[in-house]
Structures are given as structure tokens and as C-alpha cells.
Write the C-alpha cells for this entry.
Amino acid sequence: MADKIKTDEKKQHFDDIYVEPTPVPYKIRILDALDYISDTYNREMFDAHILPHVKDKTVNFVDLCACFGNTTMATIYGMSYNEIRENWKDETSCMTIQGKRRIDDCETTAIDISQPAMEYGKKVGLFDNTMSCDLNDQSTQEFGRTVDIMTNANVLICTAALVYLDLESIEKIVTAFASGDGEGYVLVNFLNPFALEKGDETKRILLEHLEFVSSRATRHRRLSKLEQDNYPGDEWALLELWVLKRPAGKVKNEECMPCIVS
């Protein structure tokens, strides 16, 4: 898996964590050690700009590059950074999600390159559907299914993860989501100081196909020792959070198609 993940050469690689069967090592080495507080702000943006529009509707929610599902816990379950850490404190606690979904009619789908992370999320009920997929390989059947899932989704999140995807893959995924019927909302993140030019290109793709709603700048997490050496004087990675929506004028089908992943 490690050789398939594309990262900024100055960004810390955490590939070994993503082959673990539970999120406990992720919690210890990232959430704890690096003060990974960004889900506090992802929840606030979701609550302000997405939740009011969808909480009483049928929601097909997709967490793209979901990892073990901490941002689904923040957005769909309304859990805080500290509540997520407490939930994932050990191998026993992490097997029960200590929260309740805030949207009654909500189907959650997760897509990520990490098969263990997908297996964990499905086992504990965090995700209804999962699929392991290398999103930078557009030739696979899984990528084609990802495009179909995007078309049928009406809430899409991809947080602190677009940096890992090729621009061509981002273009196809965003185009598919934008082509769907009815209201649809997207929450994405951009990182600083990593891959800034790629972030700008990604913004152009998003703005070409979707309507801008709101943005916010916050802290993301502390830089690792390697990253501090690569970016002298910086202690924190920063986050730019964007919410966008499907273009106005899309005609809604009578029924919202479910995101079905075997």
C-alpha cells in the first residue's frame, strides 16, 4: 500500500499506521502526539453549512479517503476531538462507537486505500458500505464504482486527503458528484505548507464544477520532527476548509438512489 500513496516529499509518511486492524495506533501517534484537532473545525463547518440542509432528508453520505472514520464520527455523529480520542483509547473501547448518528435517514459509505481501515469501520457500524480502492488508478473496477457512488451521493467529505490524489482523479470524482441530481454538499480541506500549487489546481477544479458556499482557515495538527526540519520555523500544519454545493438547477429524481457497495 505504501508505494501507492502519493505525498508531498516534505510531508511525514504514516503508512505503517494504516495497515493496523484498529485505530488505536492512529489515535496515539497522530491524534494524541500531533494534536490532530482539525475534526473540531470540520464538525463546525459541517454543522453550520451542511447539516441544516440535510438533517431531515435522506442522505447518502460518502467519506472519501476515510481512513478509520474519525471525520465521519465528527460530522455524522457530532463527536468532538476529545470524544473521538476517548472512544479510540484502547482495543476494547474502539470496538463500540460511543455516539449516535444525528441524521435519522443516513447511509454512510467509506472509500479508502486501506483495507484494514475499511474492515474496522464496517465491523463497528461506523460505515454501512465500504470499498478499498487506489483512487489514483482509474483503470480499476473500483474506481469506476467510485464514480457511480459520487453521482448518487448528496453529501461528500474528503478531509486532509486531497493532497494524496492525482488531479485527474480529482477531476473525475468532482465531475461525477456535480452531475448528480438534487441538492448536494461537499466538505474538503487544503493543507499548508504541503503541496500548495496542487491545492490551487484542486480549487480550480472544484470551482469549475461546484458552487462555493463558505471557507475557513484553522490549525490542522502539529508538524512532526521531520516536517519541522523541512519547514524551519513552522510548528503547525494549517487547514483551509471549504464547503461547496451542486450547481443550482439540478432536477431531483423522485427517489434518491442508495450508495451500494458490496
In short: The chain has ten helices and seven strands.
